[in-house]
Amino acid sequence: MSERDDDKLDDDKLDLSGLDPVADPRRLERVSALIAQLAIAARKRKSPLWGTLVAYSRWAAALSAATAAGAIFLALTTSPVASDLPEDEPADVVLLSWAEGDEEPDVNDILQVLGDEP
Amino acid sequence: MLSATEVEHLVERALAGGDESFSTLAGAHYRAAYCSALAIVRSSEDAEDVVQDAMVSAFTELESCREPAKFSGWLLSIVRRAALMSLRKRGRARKVQDAAAPTDEAAPASGADVLLRERLLRAAGALSDRQAEVLFLHDLEGWTHPEIADALGISEVNARQILFEARRKMRAKLGEDPAGGGVP
User: Which of B3, B1, B8, B7 is nearest to B141 (CA)?
Assistant: First the structure.
Protein backbone atom coordinates (compact mmCIF):
# COMPACT_ATOMS: atom_id res chain seq x y z
CA MET A 1 0.00 0.00 0.00
CA SER A 2 1.37 3.43 -0.91
CA GLU A 3 1.88 6.44 1.34
CA ARG A 4 -1.16 8.04 -0.24
CA ASP A 5 -3.21 5.00 0.75
CA ASP A 6 -1.88 5.36 4.31
CA ASP A 7 -2.99 8.98 4.40
CA LYS A 8 -6.39 7.94 3.12
CA LEU A 9 -6.63 5.32 5.86
CA ASP A 10 -5.86 8.00 8.44
CA ASP A 11 -8.48 10.32 6.93
CA ASP A 12 -11.04 7.55 7.24
CA LYS A 13 -10.36 7.19 10.96
CA LEU A 14 -13.43 6.38 13.02
CA ASP A 15 -14.07 8.44 16.14
CA LEU A 16 -13.89 5.82 18.88
CA SER A 17 -13.22 8.27 21.70
CA GLY A 18 -16.51 7.17 23.26
CA LEU A 19 -14.74 3.91 24.16
CA ASP A 20 -11.73 5.58 25.77
CA PRO A 21 -11.62 4.60 29.46
CA VAL A 22 -8.91 7.14 30.30
CA ALA A 23 -9.86 10.20 28.27
CA ASP A 24 -9.14 12.21 31.40
CA PRO A 25 -5.33 12.27 31.84
CA ARG A 26 -5.71 12.45 35.64
CA ARG A 27 -7.61 9.17 35.58
CA LEU A 28 -4.86 7.55 33.49
CA GLU A 29 -2.33 8.78 36.04
CA ARG A 30 -4.33 7.35 38.94
CA VAL A 31 -4.90 3.99 37.25
CA SER A 32 -1.22 3.69 36.27
CA ALA A 33 -0.10 4.53 39.80
CA LEU A 34 -2.48 1.93 41.24
CA ILE A 35 -1.25 -0.80 38.87
CA ALA A 36 2.38 0.06 39.63
CA GLN A 37 1.70 0.02 43.37
CA LEU A 38 -0.01 -3.40 43.21
CA ALA A 39 2.76 -4.82 41.02
CA ILE A 40 5.56 -3.56 43.26
CA ALA A 41 3.83 -5.00 46.34
CA ALA A 42 3.35 -8.34 44.54
CA ARG A 43 7.00 -8.43 43.49
CA LYS A 44 8.09 -7.80 47.08
CA ARG A 45 5.78 -10.52 48.36
CA LYS A 46 6.91 -12.93 45.65
CA SER A 47 10.49 -13.23 46.75
CA PRO A 48 11.87 -11.07 49.53
CA LEU A 49 14.99 -13.22 49.74
CA TRP A 50 15.65 -12.93 46.02
CA GLY A 51 15.15 -9.17 46.17
CA THR A 52 17.66 -8.89 48.96
CA LEU A 53 20.14 -11.07 47.10
CA VAL A 54 19.79 -8.97 43.96
CA ALA A 55 20.25 -5.79 45.97
CA TYR A 56 23.47 -7.10 47.48
CA SER A 57 24.68 -9.03 44.43
CA ARG A 58 27.13 -6.33 43.36
CA TRP A 59 28.75 -6.21 46.77
CA ALA A 60 28.88 -9.99 46.89
CA ALA A 61 30.45 -10.15 43.43
CA ALA A 62 33.05 -7.52 44.38
CA LEU A 63 33.89 -9.34 47.60
CA SER A 64 34.28 -12.67 45.78
CA ALA A 65 36.54 -11.10 43.16
CA ALA A 66 38.72 -9.48 45.85
CA THR A 67 38.98 -12.76 47.77
CA ALA A 68 39.93 -14.67 44.64
CA ALA A 69 42.52 -12.05 43.66
CA GLY A 70 44.01 -12.17 47.17
CA ALA A 71 44.23 -15.95 47.10
CA ILE A 72 45.95 -15.93 43.71
CA PHE A 73 48.37 -13.22 44.85
CA LEU A 74 49.30 -15.20 47.97
CA ALA A 75 49.75 -18.40 45.99
CA LEU A 76 52.06 -16.70 43.53
CA THR A 77 54.16 -14.72 45.99
CA THR A 78 54.57 -17.14 48.88
CA SER A 79 57.51 -19.54 48.47
CA PRO A 80 56.81 -23.19 49.18
CA VAL A 81 57.64 -24.40 52.72
CA ALA A 82 61.24 -25.37 52.71
CA SER A 83 61.89 -28.83 53.96
CA ASP A 84 64.65 -29.09 56.56
CA LEU A 85 65.32 -32.63 55.47
CA PRO A 86 68.57 -33.27 53.69
CA GLU A 87 67.96 -33.91 50.03
CA ASP A 88 68.75 -37.20 48.30
CA GLU A 89 69.68 -38.99 51.51
CA PRO A 90 68.60 -42.62 51.75
CA ALA A 91 65.67 -43.24 54.07
CA ASP A 92 67.64 -45.41 56.49
CA VAL A 93 70.24 -42.69 57.00
CA VAL A 94 67.59 -40.17 57.83
CA LEU A 95 65.80 -42.59 60.15
CA LEU A 96 69.08 -43.26 61.89
CA SER A 97 69.75 -39.56 62.36
CA TRP A 98 66.30 -39.20 63.94
CA ALA A 99 66.98 -42.11 66.26
CA GLU A 100 70.27 -40.65 67.37
CA GLY A 101 69.03 -37.10 67.77
CA ASP A 102 66.71 -35.69 70.41
CA GLU A 103 64.34 -33.98 67.97
CA GLU A 104 61.16 -35.82 67.07
CA PRO A 105 60.27 -35.77 63.36
CA ASP A 106 56.86 -34.45 62.43
CA VAL A 107 54.33 -36.33 60.33
CA ASN A 108 55.24 -34.54 57.12
CA ASP A 109 58.90 -35.45 57.45
CA ILE A 110 58.05 -39.08 58.13
CA LEU A 111 55.78 -39.22 55.08
CA GLN A 112 58.43 -37.59 52.95
CA VAL A 113 61.06 -40.13 53.93
CA LEU A 114 58.93 -43.25 54.00
CA GLY A 115 56.44 -42.36 51.32
CA ASP A 116 52.73 -41.90 51.93
CA GLU A 117 51.72 -45.40 50.86
CA PRO A 118 50.92 -47.92 53.57
CA MET B 1 3.50 5.62 22.13
CA LEU B 2 7.02 5.26 23.50
CA SER B 3 9.72 4.05 21.12
CA ALA B 4 10.98 0.49 21.43
CA THR B 5 14.25 1.83 22.83
CA GLU B 6 12.47 3.89 25.48
CA VAL B 7 10.35 0.90 26.46
CA GLU B 8 13.47 -1.28 26.62
CA HIS B 9 15.19 1.18 28.97
CA LEU B 10 12.11 1.43 31.17
CA VAL B 11 11.86 -2.36 31.44
CA GLU B 12 15.55 -2.64 32.30
CA ARG B 13 15.23 0.10 34.91
CA ALA B 14 12.16 -1.59 36.41
CA LEU B 15 14.05 -4.90 36.59
CA ALA B 16 16.94 -3.16 38.31
CA GLY B 17 14.57 -1.93 41.01
CA GLY B 18 13.42 1.39 39.56
CA ASP B 19 9.87 1.35 40.90
CA GLU B 20 8.84 4.57 39.14
CA SER B 21 9.35 2.83 35.78
CA PHE B 22 6.36 0.58 36.43
CA SER B 23 4.05 3.56 36.58
CA THR B 24 5.45 5.00 33.35
CA LEU B 25 5.13 1.63 31.59
CA ALA B 26 1.57 1.23 32.84
CA GLY B 27 0.59 4.71 31.67
CA ALA B 28 2.15 4.19 28.26
CA HIS B 29 0.43 0.85 27.69
CA TYR B 30 -2.88 1.11 29.51
CA ARG B 31 -4.98 2.20 26.54
CA ALA B 32 -3.40 -0.33 24.17
CA ALA B 33 -3.95 -3.11 26.69
CA TYR B 34 -7.56 -1.97 27.06
CA CYS B 35 -7.99 -2.16 23.26
CA SER B 36 -6.79 -5.77 23.21
CA ALA B 37 -8.97 -6.76 26.16
CA LEU B 38 -12.05 -4.96 24.81
CA ALA B 39 -11.68 -6.72 21.45
CA ILE B 40 -12.25 -10.00 23.30
CA VAL B 41 -14.55 -9.30 26.25
CA ARG B 42 -16.58 -6.55 24.48
CA SER B 43 -17.44 -4.81 27.73
CA SER B 44 -15.69 -1.70 28.99
CA GLU B 45 -15.89 -2.62 32.66
CA ASP B 46 -14.71 -6.19 32.12
CA ALA B 47 -11.91 -4.96 29.86
CA GLU B 48 -10.66 -2.58 32.55
CA ASP B 49 -10.68 -5.38 35.16
CA VAL B 50 -8.78 -7.67 32.78
CA VAL B 51 -6.21 -4.98 32.01
CA GLN B 52 -5.54 -4.23 35.65
CA ASP B 53 -5.10 -7.91 36.57
CA ALA B 54 -3.02 -8.70 33.49
CA MET B 55 -0.72 -5.71 33.93
CA VAL B 56 -0.10 -6.47 37.59
CA SER B 57 0.69 -10.10 36.68
CA ALA B 58 2.96 -9.05 33.82
CA PHE B 59 4.89 -6.59 35.99
CA THR B 60 5.16 -9.15 38.77
CA GLU B 61 6.73 -11.63 36.33
CA LEU B 62 8.67 -9.03 34.35
CA GLU B 63 11.76 -11.27 34.38
CA SER B 64 9.91 -13.55 31.92
CA CYS B 65 10.01 -10.83 29.27
CA ARG B 66 13.13 -12.03 27.49
CA GLU B 67 13.23 -9.23 24.95
CA PRO B 68 12.55 -5.93 26.72
CA ALA B 69 12.39 -4.12 23.36
CA LYS B 70 9.35 -6.26 22.54
CA PHE B 71 7.64 -5.60 25.85
CA SER B 72 4.52 -4.14 24.19
CA GLY B 73 3.76 -7.27 22.18
CA TRP B 74 4.58 -9.44 25.19
CA LEU B 75 2.19 -7.47 27.38
CA LEU B 76 -0.65 -7.56 24.84
CA SER B 77 -0.34 -11.35 24.53
CA ILE B 78 -0.72 -11.61 28.31
CA VAL B 79 -3.76 -9.32 28.18
CA ARG B 80 -5.37 -11.41 25.43
CA ARG B 81 -4.83 -14.60 27.43
CA ALA B 82 -6.29 -12.96 30.53
CA ALA B 83 -9.29 -11.72 28.52
CA LEU B 84 -9.99 -15.19 27.15
CA MET B 85 -9.67 -16.69 30.64
CA SER B 86 -12.01 -14.04 31.99
CA LEU B 87 -14.59 -14.89 29.34
CA ARG B 88 -14.35 -18.57 30.17
CA LYS B 89 -14.46 -17.93 33.90
CA ARG B 90 -17.49 -15.73 33.78
CA GLY B 91 -19.20 -18.01 31.32
CA ARG B 92 -20.38 -15.08 29.34
CA ALA B 93 -21.48 -15.29 25.76
CA ARG B 94 -19.51 -13.16 23.35
CA LYS B 95 -22.11 -10.51 22.87
CA VAL B 96 -22.44 -6.86 23.56
CA GLN B 97 -23.96 -6.11 26.90
CA ASP B 98 -27.48 -4.84 26.58
CA ALA B 99 -27.23 -2.66 29.61
CA ALA B 100 -23.81 -1.25 30.41
CA ALA B 101 -24.24 0.23 33.84
CA PRO B 102 -21.66 2.89 34.69
CA THR B 103 -20.15 1.18 37.70
CA ASP B 104 -16.82 2.98 37.67
CA GLU B 105 -16.97 5.76 40.26
CA ALA B 106 -13.68 7.21 39.11
CA ALA B 107 -15.06 7.91 35.66
CA PRO B 108 -18.67 8.88 35.91
CA ALA B 109 -20.15 8.77 32.44
CA SER B 110 -23.05 10.85 31.28
CA GLY B 111 -26.09 9.19 29.72
CA ALA B 112 -24.97 10.33 26.29
CA ASP B 113 -21.49 8.85 26.83
CA VAL B 114 -22.99 5.53 27.86
CA LEU B 115 -25.29 5.48 24.84
CA LEU B 116 -22.41 6.27 22.48
CA ARG B 117 -20.24 3.57 24.05
CA GLU B 118 -23.05 1.01 23.75
CA ARG B 119 -23.63 1.97 20.17
CA LEU B 120 -19.95 1.58 19.28
CA LEU B 121 -19.73 -1.75 21.07
CA ARG B 122 -22.86 -3.00 19.31
CA ALA B 123 -21.32 -2.11 15.96
CA ALA B 124 -18.02 -3.73 16.96
CA GLY B 125 -20.00 -6.91 17.57
CA ALA B 126 -19.83 -7.45 13.81
CA LEU B 127 -16.03 -7.66 13.92
CA SER B 128 -13.77 -10.58 14.66
CA ASP B 129 -11.47 -10.28 17.69
CA ARG B 130 -8.51 -9.52 15.46
CA GLN B 131 -10.41 -6.90 13.42
CA ALA B 132 -11.63 -5.22 16.60
CA GLU B 133 -8.14 -5.25 18.10
CA VAL B 134 -6.52 -3.68 15.04
CA LEU B 135 -9.31 -1.10 14.73
CA PHE B 136 -9.14 -0.11 18.40
CA LEU B 137 -5.34 0.05 18.44
CA HIS B 138 -5.27 2.24 15.34
CA ASP B 139 -8.32 4.47 15.70
CA LEU B 140 -8.61 4.65 19.49
CA GLU B 141 -5.03 4.35 20.72
CA GLY B 142 -3.38 5.83 17.64
CA TRP B 143 -0.78 3.17 16.96
CA THR B 144 0.75 3.08 13.49
CA HIS B 145 0.63 0.04 11.22
CA PRO B 146 4.28 -0.92 11.91
CA GLU B 147 3.60 -0.72 15.65
CA ILE B 148 0.45 -2.84 15.35
CA ALA B 149 2.19 -5.35 13.08
CA ASP B 150 5.10 -5.68 15.49
CA ALA B 151 2.94 -6.09 18.58
CA LEU B 152 0.49 -8.56 17.01
CA GLY B 153 3.05 -10.52 15.00
CA ILE B 154 1.41 -9.83 11.64
CA SER B 155 2.63 -8.07 8.50
CA GLU B 156 1.99 -4.39 7.94
CA VAL B 157 0.04 -5.17 4.78
CA ASN B 158 -2.13 -7.55 6.76
CA ALA B 159 -2.68 -4.90 9.45
CA ARG B 160 -3.84 -2.41 6.80
CA GLN B 161 -6.18 -4.94 5.20
CA ILE B 162 -7.67 -5.87 8.55
CA LEU B 163 -8.20 -2.21 9.43
CA PHE B 164 -9.83 -1.47 6.08
CA GLU B 165 -12.26 -4.36 6.46
CA ALA B 166 -13.00 -3.54 10.11
CA ARG B 167 -13.86 0.05 9.29
CA ARG B 168 -16.09 -1.02 6.41
CA LYS B 169 -18.04 -3.34 8.71
CA MET B 170 -18.23 -0.77 11.52
CA ARG B 171 -19.55 1.93 9.21
CA ALA B 172 -22.15 -0.43 7.79
CA LYS B 173 -23.31 -1.42 11.29
CA LEU B 174 -23.34 2.14 12.58
CA GLY B 175 -25.28 3.23 9.50
CA GLU B 176 -28.03 0.70 10.08
CA ASP B 177 -28.17 1.29 13.89
CA PRO B 178 -31.62 2.74 14.70
CA ALA B 179 -30.12 4.46 17.74
CA GLY B 180 -27.92 6.05 15.09
CA GLY B 181 -27.15 9.65 14.50
CA GLY B 182 -24.70 8.92 11.75
CA VAL B 183 -21.25 7.42 11.62
CA PRO B 184 -18.82 8.98 14.13
Answer: B1
DSSP code for B27: H
Q: How far apart are CA A100 and CA A23, in angstroms?
A: 103
Q: Do A21 and B136 touch (CB under 8 A)?
A: no
Is the pLDDT at B63 greater than 90? The verdict is yes
Task: Give the DSSP letter of residue B63.
Answer: G
pLDDT in tens, A80-90: 555 555 666 77
B152-174 residues labelled b (16+ CB within 10 A) or e (exposed)? bebebebbbebbbebbebbeebb
Of A16, A21, A43, the CB nearest to B139: A16
Answer whether residue B139 shows pLDDT above 80.
yes
User: B48 to each of A29, B3, B13, B44, B45, how far by Cα in Å?
Assistant: 15, 24, 26, 6, 5
Distance from the Cα of A115 to chain B's closest Cα (Å) equals 57
ipTM of the predicted structure?
A: 0.83
> Do the chains contact at B59 and A6, CB–CB below 8 Å?
no
- DSSP letter for each residue of A5-54: HHHHHHHT----GGG-TT-SHHHHHHHHHHHHHHHHHHHHHH-HHHHHHH
Is A52 within 8 Å of A61 (Cβ atoms)?
Answer: no
**How far apart (Å, rounded) are the C-alpha atoms in residues B2 and B8?**
10
B17 to A36: CB separation less than 8 angstroms, yes or no: no
Please give the span between the terminal C-alpha atoms of chain A, in angstroms, as a whole number.
88
The Cα–Cα gap between B90 and B47 comes to 13
| Domains of chain B from N-terminus onward | 1-91 (1.10.1740.10), 110-178+180-184 (1.10.10.10)
Closest CA to B52 of A110, A91, A28: A28
Residue A24 to residues A17, A27, A28, B109: CA-CA distances in angstroms?
11, 5, 7, 12
